[in-house]
Amino acid sequence: MPEEQYLNLAAYAANVHCLGPGPRVVFWVQGCCFRCPGCVAPDWRPCTPAHIVTVDALIAFCRLLTDHRGITFSGGEPMLQAMGLHKLWRGISDIHPSWDLIIFTGFTPQMLAKDERRQKFARDADALIAGPYIQAHHTETGLRGSSNQMIRFKPGGRFTENERLDIISGTRSQEVHINKDMAVIAGIPPRSGAVHKDMIEHALQKNTKKVKGWQKTVP
């Protein structure tokens, strides 16, 4: 299976506003090489098949979303599927040249520099949030999970100064997105990781079979 033709996705959602300026499309990949304590999505760590989708099918899906403004890649670890995601991004940007790109990765810039393909992919990001999550340095604002993580903005990128400030230190929110029989909770969670009861109730009302994403027992 050519790695640049297919992607192994944990989940995806459109019309997301909590992982960068929206509305945007978010793709969460399956599989991660890091084992960060306090990880918000442990179900997405195993490098096992989840939803195998062709890159071309995802490009066709994004072609229809003319009212969106960007893409976010998260996971899981996007850099483990750098070739496929890079091809996906190039295909989307050909269709929607004004769209921006945000990438979350546990790799540091120094680690990315050791792999030409990953480094090339990372350079396409208008905002790269890089570095492993460290629970002791958890933050409550912006798109960094912990303060050790670096945010690198692309020179001449698509974000305005206010959007950059919001990515760095803006107020967070979380959202529930329903895809067929699954509810995906999007957004950077608080330190407790607690899911709001109304989010769970909304998912149950939609008769979803399970809720994916960051979650702990609702108090």
Automatic annotation (TrEMBL):
Its cofactor is [4Fe-4S] cluster. Keywords: 4Fe-4S, Iron, Iron-sulfur, Metal-binding, S-adenosyl-L-methionine. This is Radical SAM protein. SUPFAM superfamilies: Radical SAM enzymes. Gene3D superfamilies: Aldolase class I. It comes from Desulfobacter latus. Signal peptide: none annotated. GO terms for molecular function: 4 iron, 4 sulfur cluster binding; catalytic activity; metal ion binding. InterPro entries: Aldolase_TIM, Organic_radical-activating, rSAM, rSAM_sf.
